[in-house]
Every structure is written in structure tokens, then in C-alpha cells.
Design a protein that fits this description.
The complex is a heterotrimer of chains A (about 130), B (about 290) and C (about 130). By secondary structure, chain A is an alpha+beta fold. Chain A has a single domain, classed as Histidine kinase-like ATPase, C-terminal domain (Heat Shock Protein 90). Helices cover about 40% and strands about 30% of the residues of chain A. Chain A has four helices and five strands. A five-stranded antiparallel beta sheet of chain A has the order 1-2-3-5-4, covered by helices on one side. In chain A, a hairpin with a 5-residue loop joins strand 4 and strand 5. The longest helix of chain A has 22 residues. Chain A is globular, with a radius of gyration of 14 Å. The two termini of chain A are about 25 Å apart. The model of chain A has no long low-confidence stretch (mean pLDDT about 85). With about 290 residues, chain B is of the alpha/beta class. Chain B folds into two domains: about 140 residues, Globin-like (Orthogonal Bundle); about 110 residues, STAS domain (Transcription Regulator spoIIAA, 2-Layer Sandwich), CATH 3.30.750. In chain B, about 60% of the residues lie in helices and about 10% in strands. A five-stranded mixed beta sheet of chain B has the order 1-2-3-4-5, sandwiched between helices. Chain C has one domain: 2-Layer Sandwich (Transcription Regulator spoIIAA), CATH 3.30.750.24. In chain C, strands 1-2-3-4-5 form a five-stranded mixed beta sheet. In chain C, helix 1 runs parallel beside helix 2. The radius of gyration of chain C is 14 Å and the shape is globular. Classes of the chains: A alpha+beta (about 130), B alpha/beta (about 290), C alpha/beta (about 130).
């Protein structure tokens, strides 16, 4: 993958694949080892969320630039049931599944920019960005 | 009166070729007066001829002006090193307009006048480019220095087998704290040390973010199987921590680095003998 | 699906995770370990994650669960070799791996188990 690409998330194997592709892209974007680990972990959480709550989705991986800084941007989208209360979904420990409820709130702490768009019945779009230090 | 841009451009190109020597001479003079009569100060000579020819190649040639950009970037950098301001460098480039204008005026054709507007815009672009190069070079130097400073100011030292320490000195910002902490954790792995002392005696103040970073480091070290002690918390910092409501929980804190070392040694199983009464050594000079 | 092998060394079970973990592998490991602890009567389990590049909340929760299960079966679990970047990320994520003992490396993990065992013997009524 060069600077942008889209991957499907349809099964558990895809979550592993997403992690590997995000790692490769993070390396290319020049993120430090810790920052690579953070964005890969966030990607793993969000990919699993798409799988568990929406039955699948896809992720766009792109390297972005802001002046001299490079960064990695991931866009997760699904056509699932959507999130009725976004505020609540971002609270630590809140879950409608059987997880720890750290997926969304935790991912937000691992990245520099976090944008969530969702409405009931309209799926969910999450964009996260991590900038090289 | 309308003159197609192309015709104007062609006329300027012709003039640039025909009057090369004259323009170069004038440019040199003009640039000299613009930068206060010391174009060649300290050996930062401007390669007027080379730049001029590269400019002409960029107009006609196929290499798209990368030669010219290279020369201008080099000019900007070398003059910056010799203490010229970026405006001084840019005005040297702008001087070319005046030199060419004199030729255009003498030529007097509508094509030349029309073309001059195009040429003037082109030179402005190149002048601004030297400005940008200057700013970019400056930024890089600052970034490099900041990084070197960060590396220098964060030593992780071994106190004992299995005990390492980070003596922090000076103001801690979020970025620096993060670097120190990553380095500390890495050292724990490399040296197989199960104890770490973070000494903040030399830190005048902490804010919420820095205190959070310290806490996170202690938690990360625990996840890795090592224990951290924080020592040298000044009264003001203790005050801040309590006022900000930061929970230090069960993290061990000690007044001094020495106390922290004793604690770490005890934890790693070192036994201390009771202090004995002072001994008086008597030495006899035997024959 | 790749299965993570469980090795037996004396009365300690050692698991060294060398692959990028799939959720099913994680769940399978959880079952395998519980079975093996009962089968062998092991008193300790060491999970070596030196090669693991990321731990997300799912894998983290699995580690906690394994520790709780083996404790019920009278065996302590020690997670060893967590990388600094992984530890920093887990803390940021908000995961504390409650109830999981940790050590810097395999050797220190074994030492910790022996130490715990000694302490347990010492307090046990004779």
C-alpha cells in the first residue's frame, strides 16, 4: 500500500490484517514506535467495534500532511445500526456489547484527532488521525 | 492596444539574451546599493552570472527551473549563514527587475512593456522562494536543537544492580516528560532492572499533564513488572498535586533520592546492618 | 486459525506468544490453559509476550480472565516481557490488567513464581 487504500472488515482475520496494514502505513508516515503502537491499537479497537456492533465495515488508510508534519489518518465506516447517544458511547466503561467499554473512549485517548459521526439507522463514520511528533 | 502575452514573453527572452552583459552589470550595482553596499560581505558572494543563466534556461529549457531553485536555495542558505536577513537576500533577487526594466524602457516596444509585467511577477516568485527557503532552514535548525536538547537532558543512570534512576532537572513539559519516560521504560527492559527511582528534586513545578505522565509511567512500569519510586517532591509540588486533585494512589514517594535508594534496595532484598558505634582505629608503628 | 502451544517445564506451564493474535486463538488459548492446568496440576503459568507488538482491550481482558481462571485452579499467572510501547498504550487505553502479575522477562517470571510458592508454603498450616 502506498499512501492510501481501503480494507474490508468482515471477519476476525480482517482485524489482524487491518493491524498489519496500519502498522506498515504508520511506519511509512514516520510515527515513533510508541505512536505506531497507539494507532495500531486504536485501529484494532475500532475494527472490532465495526465487526461486533455493525456486523462489518471498512477502513480507509491514508498518509496525510500538514505543513512539514506527516500523519496517519484512518476512516472507519459501517452501515450498522448507528449510535443513538454519542456522548454516552464515549464514556469509559459504557458498553452495549460484552466488552469493557474501552473501545471508543480508549481509542480517542490514543490518537490526536477523533471525529465520530453517527445517527440511528445511518451507520457510523469514525475518523482518527495521529501526527508524527 | 493589446499584445498577446506570448509575444511579450518572447520579447523579454530576446532582450535577456541580447543584453546579458549589460543587465548583469546593472543588477550587480543595484543589488549592491540595496543591501547597503556589501553584496559580497564575508565571502557570501552572489553568483549573479549563474543565477542569470539558470533563469534563462528555466524560461526556455525543459528542466522546469529546478536548477534555478537549487541555486536560489543555496544562495538563501549561504547568506543566512553569513548573517544576512532574508529581506536582504530577497531584495538582491528583486534587483534584477530594475536592471531589466532599464533595458525594456530603452527598447520601448509594447511587447517588451507587456512582457515586463509577466517577468516582474516571475522574479517576485523567485524572491519569495528565497524567503521560504530561509524560514524552512531556520525551522529545521530549531527542531534539531530541540531534539538534541531533549536527548541531553534526560539521562537514565544505574544506581545499583537492578536499580535505575532518572534525575529530572529543570522545567518539565509534556513532550520532555514523555521522552524521559519512554527512555526509562526502555532502560528497565535492557538492564533487567525491577526498580526505578524518578527524582524530581530539580523540578521547580509540575502541571496536571506532567503529573499525569509521571503517574502513567509508574503504571506502565508495573505492567512490565517493575516498581517506581518518586523522590524529591518539593513542598510546592506536593501542594499542587493535592490541589489539582491528582490521585497518587499507592505509588511510593520518598523525600530524597537517598531514601528512595534505601527503599529500592530493601525491596530487592538487600539487608542493612545496624549502625555500629564509631570505631577508633589505633595504628602502631612497628619498627 | 493458529493455536498457541502450551509447554510444560516442571510444575510451570509456559506459553510464548509469537503470532499476531486472532480473537479465536485467544479464546482457544484460554480453554487450553485451563485444561492443561488441571491435567498437570501446575502451580504456575507464564505467558511470554516479548514478541507481542500490540495488546488491545480484547487481548488485555483475556489476560485478566486467564489469571482469574488459573487462580481458581490454584495456579498463579505471570505475564512477562511486555514491551514499553505496549505498556504505555495499555495505560493510555485505560486498561490496568487487574489481578495479573507481571515480570520483566521469563527468568524473573520463574523467580517470582518460586518466591510466591515459598511464601505460600510459609503461611500454610503444617
Amino acid at each position: 500500500m502506498t499512501s492510501s487504500g481501503e480494507l474490508p472488515i468482515n471477519g476476525n482475520g480482517d482485524v489482524v490484517l487491518v493491524r498489519q496494514e496500519v502498522r506498515a502505513a504508520a511506519l511509512e508516515a514516520g510515527l515513533s514506535l510508541v505512536d505506531q503502537t497507539k494507532i495500531v491499537t486504536a485501529a484494532s479497537e475500532l475494527a472490532r467495534n465495526a465487526l461486533v456492533y455493525a456486523g462489518g465495515g471498512r477502513v480507509r488508510i491514508e498518509i496525510v500532511r500538514n505543513g512539514v508534519r506527516a500523519g496517519l489518518r484512518l476512516t472507519f465506516s459501517d452501515d450498522g445500526p448507528g449510535i443513538p447517544d454519542i456522548e454516552q458511547a464515549l464514556v469509559d466503561g459504557w458498553t452495549t456489547g460484552n466488552g469493557l467499554g474501552l473501545g471508543l473512549s480508549g481509542s480517542r485517548r490514543l490518537v490526536d484527532e477523533f471525529d465520530l459521526r453517527s445517527a440511528p439507522g445511518e451507520g457510523t463514520l469514525i475518523t482518527v488521525t495521529k501526527w508524527a511528533r | 492596444m493589446t499584445v498577446p502575452v506570448d509575444a511579450g514573453r518572447r520579447r523579454i527572452e530576446e532582450l535577456l539574451e541580447e543584453h546579458e552583459e549589460q543587465i548583469l552589470g546593472r543588477w550587480f550595482e543595484i543589488a549592491g546599493t540595496m543591501s547597503g553596499g556589501h553584496v559580497d560581505r564575508g565571502g557570501a558572494a552572489v553568483p549573479f552570472g549563474e543565477i542569470y543563466r539558470a533563469l534563462r534556461r528555466s524560461l526556455t529549457g525543459s528542466e522546469g527551473g529546478s536548477d534555478l531553485r537549487g541555486l536560489l536555495a543555496e544562495l538563501s542558505r549561504s547568506r543566512a549563514r553569513h548573517g544576512f536577513t532574508p529581506s536582504e537576500t530577497a531584495s538582491v533577487v528583486f534587483g534584477l527587475k530594475e536592471a531589466v526594466y532599464e533595458i525594456v524602457e530603452a527598447d520601448g516596444t509594447p511587447e517588451a512593456l507587456r512582457g515586463f509585467i509577466w517577468f516582474s511577477r516571475l522574479v517576485d516568485e523567485h524572491g519569495l522562494f528565497t524567503f521560504e527557503t530561509y524560514a524552512a532552514a531556520r525551522e529545521r535548525i530549531i527542531a534539531d536543537q530541540a531534539e538534541q536538547l531533549l536527548e541531553l537532558s534526560t539521562p537514565v543512570v544505574k544506581l545499583w544492580e537492578g536499580i535505575v534512576a532518572v534525575p529530572l532537572v529543570g522545567t518539565l513539559d509534556s513532550a520532555r516528560t514523555q521522552v524521559v519516560m519512554e527512555k526509562l521504560l526502555q532502560t528497565l527492559v535492557e538492564t533487567g532492572s525491577e526498580h526505578a527511582v524518578i527524582d524530581i528534586t530539580g523540578v521547580p513545578a509540575v502541571d496536571t499533564q506532567v503529573a499525569q505522565h509521571l503517574l502513567k509511567t509508574v503504571m506502565a512500569a508495573r505492567l512490565m513488572g517493575a516498581e517506581c519510586v518518586i523522590s524529591g517532591i518539593r513542598p510546592q509540588i506536593a501542594h499542587t498535586i493535592v490541589t489539582l486533585g491528582i490521585e497518587f494512589g499507592d505509588i511510593v514517594t520518598k523525600a530524597s533520592l537517598a531514601d528512595a535508594l534505601v527503599h529500592a534496595l530493601r525491596q530487592s532484598g538487600v539487608e542493612f546492618a545496624e549502625a555500629r558505634s564509631p570505631r577508633i582505629a589505633v595504628r602502631t608503628e612497628a619498627g | 486459525m493458529d493455536r498457541v502451544p502450551v509447554l510444560k517445564l516442571g510444575d510451570i506451564l509456559i506459553v510464548s506468544i509469537q503470532i499476531d493474535l486472532q480473537d479465536q486463538s485467544v479464546l482457544a488459548l484460554q480453554e487450553d490453559l485451563a485444561d492443561k492446568v488441571v491435567q498437570t496440576g501446575a502451580r504456575g503459568v507464564i505467558i511470554d509476550i516479548t514478541a507481542v507488538e500490540i495488546i488491545d482491550s480484547f487481548i488485555g481482558r483475556m489476560l485478566s480472565t486467564i489469571a482469574s481462571i488459573t487462580r481458581l485452579l490454584d495456579a498463579e499467572t505471570v505475564v512477562v516481557g511486555m514491551r514499553p510501547a505496549v505498556a504505555i498504550t495499555l495505560v493510555e487505553l485505560g486498561l490496568s490488567l487487574g489481578g495479573v502479575r507481571t515480570a520483566l522477562n521469563l527468568e524473573k517470571g520463574v523467580a517470582l513464581l518460586n518466591h510466591l510458592d515459598g511464601a505460600r508454603l510459609a503461611v500454610a498450616p503444617r
